[in-house]
């Protein structure tokens, strides 16, 4: 349901693969379950190796690779959207003979029905969040190197870079030799001046 909402709303939102900034608005979580998924997913986020905790200072910085794409965040948003639709929808009758069973006093309700306008607004907001997150992932993938080059082209680029690196190293060595020669001449001039 959330995916169909995302597809239906994509025609009404700006079609830009570089639109990675979400809308500038703050809102409380639509449902308690969504907040739990975001904040209560892992109570202790400190990595542990053989029972000993590692501080953030001892960990290497994250690498900008495809492995740290916000896919877990997208999955969390999918789950929150499914929960919202399942929890807050209205009860409907499929035929005139259908009856909605009445709940007992000690029986928790299966759904927490919201006002139709509020329910629709929540669906729209969830769908926009899903589309924004998908565009973030699409943009990050588009910035990865090598997507438009074959393996042969990449090997050729590596060889050219190695040649450029070798030429730069030769220039560096020549500059070091020139520096040593200039220092020797300067040292000789200083000694000559001291003698006179």
UniProtKB/TrEMBL annotation:
Transmembrane segments: none annotated. It comes from the Eukaryota. The keyword Glycosyltransferase does not apply. Residues 151-185 form a coiled coil. Keywords: Activator, Coiled coil, Nucleus, Transcription, Transcription regulation. Residues 36-61, 93-112 are annotated as: Disordered. Pfam families: Med21 (PF11221). Residues 36-46 have a biased composition (Polar residues). The keyword rRNA-binding does not apply. Component of the Mediator complex. This is Mediator of RNA polymerase II transcription subunit 21.
């Amino acid at each position: 349901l959330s995916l169909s909402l995302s597809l239906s709303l994509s025609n009404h939102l700006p079609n830009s693969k570089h639109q990675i900034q979400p809308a500038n608005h703050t809102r409380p979580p639509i449902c308690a379950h969504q907040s739990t998924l975001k904040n209560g997913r892992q109570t202790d986020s400190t990595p542990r190796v053989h029972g000993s905790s590692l501080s953030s200072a001892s960990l290497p910085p994250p690498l900008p690779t495809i492995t740290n794409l916000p896919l877990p965040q997208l999955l969390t948003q999918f789950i929150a959207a499914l929960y919202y639709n399942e929890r807050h929808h209205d009860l409907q009758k499929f035929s005139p003979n259908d009856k909605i069973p009445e709940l007992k006093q000690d029986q928790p309700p299966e759904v927490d029905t919201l006002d139709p306008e509020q329910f629709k607004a929540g669906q729209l907001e969830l769908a926009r969040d899903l589309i924004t997150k998908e565009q973030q992932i699409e943009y990050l993938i588009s910035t990865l190197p090598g997507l438009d080059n074959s393996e042969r082209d990449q090997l050729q680029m590596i060889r050219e870079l190695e040649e450029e690196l070798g030429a730069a190293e030769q220039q560096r060595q020549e500059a070091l030799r020139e520096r040593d020669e200039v220092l020797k001449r300067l040292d000789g001039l200083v000694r000559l001046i001291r003698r006179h």
